[in-house]
Amino acid sequence: MWHVPARPPAELRKCAEAEQTMGMVAITSRRLTVAEFHAMPERDDAVEELLDGELLVRRIPTRSHQRAISTLMLPLNAFVETHAIGEVFLPKMQVIPDAWTAVVPDLTVFPLVNGRPIRDDDDLPTPRLVIEVLSPDTARIDRGRKRTLYQRLGVEYWIVDLDAQLVEQWMPEAVSPVICLSEIAWAPTDAPEPFRLELPGLFARVVHP
């Protein structure tokens, strides 16, 4: 179980290199803990994450990126609510598997806690599904270190590639992804049917609205 502590304002500053490497891994002088990361002032012009003690700073997502997130969330949220199997969260919900990592997926499906929605003071359960939408800033990390992290946690992971108009579906034990071009399906064991999404329609709405 993972607990997401509050992130209060503080005077602790990031290193200068973090300010200069937007969209790239920020090189810090030492590994940061999640507690130190949460003590840093939040910034409005970037998305920040911590991965194995290393600070990641990336630009605010583009309109197409954000449109993809919202377009994916609507049917996925309807599915999990209809079958009462979890909740879908947009970015800002952190996944914190250890004291050195706090990542912010584009979409995260968490299971219910004791049959009810997650409360602010709950420890977060392991996600059921994590989705990242690729951007030039994040592709290397999303396909590399984040993919390894989610697989290690036993989480199904989707990488949405807007340029190639496909989704890479990574199962926890897989050594290569299933490349989905026409449809992608998610089959949670406690749902009576899989969630299915037609991809050409998704990309038509997102890439060429």
Sum this structure up briefly.
It contains six helices and 15 strands.
Give me the Rg, rounded.
17 Å
The proportion of strand residues reads: 25-35%
Spatial order of the strands in the main sheet? Answer: 5-8-10-11-12-13
Q: Which CATH C-level class of the largest domain is it? A: Alpha Beta
Q: Which word captures the global form?
A: globular
The level of helicity is 25-40%
**Secondary-structure content class:** alpha+beta
Give the end-to-end Cα distance, rounded to a whole number of Å. 40 Å
Sheet of most strands: 6 strands, mixed
CATH topology of the largest domain: tt1808, chain A
Give the number of helices.
6
SSE arrangement, N to C: EHEHEEHEEEEEEHHEEEEEH
Notes on the protein architecture:
This protein has 209 residues and is α+β, with helices and mostly antiparallel strands. It has two domains: 2-59, no CATH class; 63-207, Alpha-Beta Complex (tt1808, chain A). 25% of the residues lie in helices and 28% in strands. It contains six helices and 15 strands. It has helices at 16-20, 34-39, 63-82, 139-143, 145-152, 199-207, and strands at 2-3, 24-25, 46-51, 54-59, 87-89, 95-98, 101-103, 107-110, 123-124, 129-133, 156-161, 166-170, 178-180, 183-186, 195-198. The strands form five sheets. Strands 5-8-10-11-12-13 form a six-stranded mixed β-sheet, with helices on both faces. A three-stranded antiparallel β-sheet has the order 2-4-3, with no helix packed on it. Helix 3 (63-82) runs antiparallel to helix 6. The longest helix has 20 residues, at 63-82.
